[in-house]
Amino acid sequence: MTEQQLLDYLSLLLIPTVGNITVKTLVSYCGSIERVHNTSKSQLLKIPGLGEKMVDTVLEAPQYRKRAERELKFIEKNQIRVLNYLEPDYPQRLKLCADSPVLLYFKGTGSLEFRRVLSVVGTRQATQYGRDICQKLVADLQDYNVLLVSGLAYGIDYQIHWHCAQQNLPTIGVLAHGLDRVYPLEHADLARKMMENGGIVSEFVSQVLPERDNFPRRNRIIAGMADGTIVVETPMKGGSLVTVRAAAAYNRDVFAFPGRVDDSMSAGCNWLIKQNQATLVESAQDIAAYYGWEKGESPKPDSTQTQLLLDLSEDELLIMNLLREKKTAHIDVICYYTALEQGTVSATLLNMEFRNLVKALPGSIYKLMY
After folding, report:
1. Are residues 203 and 344 in the same domain?
2. How many CB atoms lie within 10 A of CB 343?
3. Residue 325: which pLDDT band, with cuts at 50, 70 and 90?
4. Is residue 2 classed as helix, strand or coil in its secondary structure?
5. CA end-to-end span of the chain
6. 296 found inside a domain
7. 44, 84, 158, 226: most buried by Cβ count inside 10 Å?
8. 328-330, strands of its sheet edge to edge
9. Quick one: average pLDDT of 129-146?
């Protein structure tokens, strides 16, 4: 992404009422971010779902140019990597989420794209039971080369990041504010340590404060970046359950450690298990067995597979998202839900099979290969 393209994206995203889905729609229909800014109002009005009010708002982008230029200077001064949803270094799991951020701001030396990624969430008031689980979980997952993602908050988040940092394991903290600060401030030293073998990431530009409404947005990124979300301890209300709902919406796995029936800090975990909204786990080995992981495999994804994922056509992406949701699907089901002709689906599936993206099972049933 060039400097000019980044300014074009920022000018749109800085408009308060223009969100990620709107920007993606504009880029999709116009062909590029540059063309979005050079397309007339009459042409923009032809884009489905925008409407005149939104188009008029989009046309206000030049008013945000100076603020975009200031942000660009901040990015350059602080050596922040900006990841665009259309580029190879953007987390591929997150890219599959319809409401994923157009831009991610990343500070650190680690990678966001590992073969195995898990998010870990829990209460800010962790008990000794929860802290012990975090310590053992991190120690045992070390054998499986897993990237752990959390939110750098008090409690369970802190425990996960801290134990990873102590063992020089990769961990990513997702923030609910700009990268010009660390919240809570007490975790600034930990954040600096995390950057040595991981880092911190946010969708928010500088000067955005950790306000209440930002945390659910942060939580969806935590869920979207991972194969599954692990809940260590949580009461019946709290941000952990927001992350769980996001993970469920993205058709990602949810795991929960059970607790005593009279412990309020485990009430949320016990409820998730009881409602079949989470798989009960007692150790890292349970999670490894669930995924069929073997110890010692490379943590980074196969570069050939990653490139294949980046080259998905629109039809392939539709099918891949459906198979993520359904796990397996008959070709007729794929045709129904994607609204594609059977010939198109057959040809697309065959091409995806040649590229090791899907596997054909007996009876014209298909599943993802990763």
Report:
1. no
2. 9
3. confident
4. coil
5. 28
6. no
7. 226
8. 328-330, 365-368, 358-361
9. 96
* Structure confidence at residue 309 (pLDDT): 53
pTM given for the model: 0.81
Question: What whole-number distance in Å separates Cα of residue 358 and Cα of residue 352?
Answer: 6
Residue 302, pLDDT > 60, answer: no
43, amino acid identity: Q
Q: Length of the chain in residues, anyone?
A: 370
Rounded CA separation 118/228 (Å): 5
Q: Which residues pair with 202 in a beta bridge?
A: 105
- pLDDT tier at 339, thresholds 50, 70, 90: confident
Spatial distance between the Cα atoms of 222 and 173, rounded to a whole number of angstroms: 9
- What is the rounded average pLDDT for all residues in the chain? 92
**Going along 113-208, which residue ranges are E strands?**
117-121, 147-150, 171-174, 199-202
Could you tell me if 348 and 318 lie in one domain?
Answer: yes
Domain of residue 363 covers 312-368
29 and 150, same domain (yes or no): no
Q: Which 8-state DSSP code applies to residue 143?
A: G
Tokens of 5: 């393209």
Give the pLDDT band (50/70/90) at residue 370: low
Residue 136: enclosing H or E segment and its boundaries? helix 128-141
Quick one: tokens of 368?
């993802």
pLDDT-based confidence at residue 45 (cuts at 50, 70, 90): very high
Q: How far is CA 129 from CA 150, 155, 183, 336, in A?
A: 19, 12, 25, 48
Q: Three-state secondary structure along 222-243?
A: HHHCCCEEEECCCCCCCHHHHH
Take residue 241 and report the two structure tokens written for it. Answer: 């359950």
Question: Is the same domain home to 259 and 349?
Answer: no
User: Does residue 118 contact residue 226 with C-beta atoms inside 8 Å?
Assistant: yes
Q: What is the CATH number of the domain that holds 318?
A: 1.10.10.10
Burial label for 90, CB within 10 Å (0-12, 13-18, 19+), is: buried
CB-count burial class (<10 Å; 0-12, 13-18, 19+) for 346: middle
DSSP per residue over 270-318, as a string? HHHHHTTSSEE-SSHHHHHHHHT--TT--SSPPHHHHHHHHT--HHHHH
Contacts with 361 (C-beta within 8 Å, 6 or more apart), sequence order:
328, 367
